[in-house]
Amino acid sequence: MSLRLRTHIEEIITLTDAEFDYILSHFELKKFRKHQFVVQEGNYVDQEYFVLEGLLKSTYLNDDGKEHILQFSMENWWVTDYQAFNNYEKATLNIDCIEDVSVLVLTDFNKSKLCSEMHKMEHFFRIKTNMGYVGLQQRILSFLKFDARSRYMHLIEKYPQLYQRVPKTLMASYLGVSRETLSRFSA
Record's InterPro entries (predicted)? Predict the structure, then answer.
């Protein structure tokens, strides 16, 4: 399990065994069952999650009770309610498990500690944050620039494994189309 995290970090920085052991000591392994919440709206968030195994969805529930899927998170992805995590606020998102999930949990305190003690880790998290912003911008622009069929084609091209694991109803919601429209796209 820890090899997955090390490989992920070393895509950006290099580590000695001692450095990685120290980094790993700041994480806690947690397991969640399918349909279990990792983050729940209204609760304070002081943890960030690195997905080792499984699949999660981040959702926003509007005032009319309609669920909007912001993102899916699978192996080697980081997830939390970043607004709540960074601003010490209550969550506005729900993050729950589509499959059974294993994550490495990093508290805000431990993340700050690692970043202050190891410039390498501060660099790593800065790069990961920038990549997250780029991904979010691409998602927003896809809704502005492309029709639903184009968004669908892009998604299955970029993340074929995600498409195979996410129930079609959730995939349709993520793309902003009905289940019937999604069925027409995949026919």
Answer: cNMP-bd_dom, cNMP-bd_dom_sf, RmlC-like_jellyroll
The CA–CA distances, whole Å, from 26 to 12, 78, 100, 175 equal 19, 15, 23, 36
Asked whether residue 176 is assigned to any structural domain, the reply reads no
31 within 8 A of 81, measured Cβ to Cβ: no
44 lies in a domain? Answer: yes
Copy the structure tokens of residue 81. Answer: 């309610």
Q: What is the pLDDT of residues 133-167, one digit of tens each?
A: 998 999 899 889 998 889 888 888 888 888 889 99
Q: For 78-134, write each residue's pLDDT tens digit.
A: 999 999 999 999 999 999 999 999 999 999 999 999 999 999 999 999 999 999 999
Domain limits at 65? 1-116
Neighbours of 147 (CB within 10 A): 11
Amino acid type, 91: A
For the chain, the domain total comes to 1
**Helices marked H in the chain — which ranges?**
2-9, 17-24, 82-87, 108-117, 119-145, 148-158, 160-165, 168-175, 179-186
CATH code at 57?
2.60.120.10
